Amino acid sequence: MNYEEIKRRIAIRSYLASRGIVPCREHGNRGMYLSPLREERTASFSVSYDKNLWHDFGTGEGGSIIDLVARMEGCSEIEAARRLAIGEHGMLVPIHVEALRTNEPTPSRLAILSDRELTHPALLGYLTGRGIDPAIARTYCREVRYTTGGKEYFAIGFRNDAGGWELRNPRFKGSSTPKNITTLDNGSDTAMVFEGFIDFLSYLSLKGNRRQAESNRACANCRGAKEEGEANLSPSIDTAILNSVTNLQKAVPFLARHRVVHAFLDNDDAGRKALARLEESLPSSEMIDQSVFYRDHKDLNDYWQEKRRLASEEKNSLAIPQVPPHERQQQEAEWQCAMSPVKKRGPGHKF
């Protein structure tokens, strides 16, 4: 059975049902689901029953049953087709085609309107809250205006090699088409690979913060020391940002040129599967799993945020003046005296 036969004969609706995923609502030939690709509270994952296609309005992604299986199970399209063909997800189910309803709403795709320098305070504040140095963010990101569902929005945009955008703001995580990886080629024989651009920016922010601290310690009174807030704006070795683990195979040709590959992937099933696939796909490269250094955290950004929080707490505790023990005892005695209730004299009655 070839690709086209799989796309025609195996219904997305049935595949999702086999995974315990049912629509929140249905309208004509379309069902709206909570996205199986990400966490959400409002259904924005559309399945066209008659066309057997899906579209995630939150990310801008969509496609056939093969694309969906590859996305959900973290495998290549070839492997997804193989699993479907041999019936790993149950019997092949013919697609029931119904006539289109004329009153069915037409889905609105995400469309990019413009991009400009990243300056909006809300976006910079969102990044700062996640530990990203604003100077680093402005180097690699843009402020992107886009429209979806007839409304206009703005977000942090990170461009991929095909011209598409990864989009983030405090309320939205998505992307525009085409989906692809982002690569930075510095001619090095060593490369790093990240799942998403937030982890990539976290790495640069962490590295810049560490260099700043070392510089300050080595030359605290030196006029040549870096000014506070200056960061390392560019990695010295080659870098690949997947922008989704489903893009893993697209990164293999780029990574295969490198003798050593440092993997900064997430500490979850998808991240571990991606690491195993990289090790299998890059037999001539030394693969170094850097996630062991943040094994107690979901990803590199989660680790970096926790590290900053602990450093801030330590800094604040050191800023509190330490009172000598004898002075502290005297202060406590005075405080207790001040807080003791004053006994009022009675009217002179004897008891």
What would you say this structure looks like, in words?
This protein has helices at 3-9, 12-18, 65-73, 77-85, 121-129, 134-140, 197-218, 248-255, 269-281, 300-319, 325-339, and strands at 25-27, 30-33, 45-48, 53-56, 61-63, 111-116, 142-148, 151-159, 165-169, 172-175, 182-184, 190-194, 238-241, 260-264, 286-289. By secondary structure, the protein is α+β, with helices and mostly antiparallel strands. The strands form three sheets. A five-stranded antiparallel β-sheet has the order 1-2-3-4-5, covered by helices on one side. The chain has a five-stranded antiparallel β-sheet with strand order 6-7-8-9-10. Helix 3 (65-73) packs across helix 4. The longest helix has 22 residues, at 197-218. The radius of gyration is 28 Å and the shape is globular. The chain starts with a helix and ends in a 12-residue tail after the last helix.
Which secondary structure elements does this structure contain, and how are they paired or packed?
Layout: H1 3-9, H2 12-18, E1 25-27, E2 30-33, E3 45-48, E4 53-56, E5 61-63, H3 65-73, H4 77-85, E6 111-116, H5 121-129, H6 134-140, E7 142-148, E8 151-159, E9 165-169, E10 172-175, E11 182-184, E12 190-194, H7 197-218, E13 238-241, H8 248-255, E14 260-264, H9 269-281, E15 286-289, H10 300-319, H11 325-339
Parallel strand pairs: 12-13, 12-14, 14-15
Antiparallel strand pairs: 1-2, 2-3, 3-4, 4-5, 6-7, 7-8, 8-9, 9-10, 11-13
Helix pairs in contact: 3-4
